[in-house]
User: What shape does this take?
Amino acid sequence: MDVVCPIDPLTGSKEIGMEMFRLIERLYPICRSITGNGVRETLKILKDYIRLEVHEVPSGTQVFDWTVPKEWNISDAYLKNSKGKKVIDFKKSNLSVVSYSHPIKKLISLDELKKHLFTLPDHPEWIPYRTSYYQEDWGLCLSQKQFLELDEREYEVCIDSVLENGYLTYGEYYIQGKEKEEVLISCHICHPSLCNDNLSGIALATHLAQKLSSTTTRYSYRFLFIPGTIGAITWLAMNENRATLIKHGLVFTGVGDSGNITYKKSRRGNAEIDRAAAHVLQHSNRPHQIIQFFPYGYDERQYCSPGFNLPVGCFMRTPHGQYQEYHTSADNLGFIKIESLADSFISAWMIFQVLEGNKKYKNTNPKCEPQLGKRKLYDSVGGQSKRVIDQLAMLWVLNMSDGLHSLLDIAIIAELPFSSIRLAADSLLEKKLLSEF
Ligand code: ZN
Assistant: This one.
């Protein structure tokens, strides 16, 4: 196997978690949406880590049943009382404005204003995150506490935004492997100051891309940093032919909270990526959950639409909507954990290792067992590693390598970690007891 784990899971994990956290801290203040300068600024920062390509798709471009929307940018927004005090201030929280709000500046009665205000009565200190992408409207978000303090008859509302023809911006990073077939990694980059939902996925994809680019890989890897829904639809519409090269894929989202890892299977349900992810999680000896595909959630919805039906699953921790902080100002830097980020990185990396190393072989001495002792395969030490080869793993590989079973099939049947099976196969290959099928 070409890919070597770039971190020592015991000593290096904290460091990778901290690196990811530092990137999230840099990206946190930026006001992102599905289009606009916030996305450009975000991609510019990612260029400090990986040499990604930035694509600009004009507003009005038809992408399957959808149209690339107008570009939205905002410089300021507030709600002022009669004394000129800003009771809502975009500069203090970019969640204060409903994303894609059209510009407005006027005096407004409290009754009229209330039709455009959003709060979370169950969490009186938190500000909700709201959007109005495909319906021109405006709105402000505030805490229930702030809302209850509004007692004047009239306020001045100002949203200094621009909604006009422009571009949808996305980033793409490609790593050429030995094979043309690709592993697709996709994450959304369209949420403003929200850490778990969007920034954790971006940090995971960026750091995996960075580590992968320093190794030689079997597969080619394509990383997409795209606005949710419309970005995936746009990429698929413009790359329909390329999509046929996607052999495996993962959507990354919500990988920083303290919950356990959740893997949502692809629509196919039994694709190699589904089996690889399940295998890695089962052998992690930590609680996790594996859930079936459903046509809601993140961009797996587009990759797994019936016309594509790509083997793309979703890798996350607590699923969206199952944590109270989801889509609120409480999804902040304090909500994500360095250990969770590191754990997500290591688990995703191990899934890649399974994909990279999963091949089919044929036993060259299939009539009865070969004599392992005379080849020094009993109690021997692996070629590249000092780990002792699992004897049972070797017997499983020899027995099941009939050209029909892949190493992952064998690991699953044998109930042994993939790494043991791979190590056994490497030793048998060295002694020419296996040949590539
Ligand atoms: Zn979201």
About this structure: The CA atoms of residues 58 and 167 lie 4 Å apart. The domain at 72-164 is CATH 3.50.30.90 (Glucose Oxidase; domain 1). Confidence is low (pLDDT under 50) at residues 1-7.
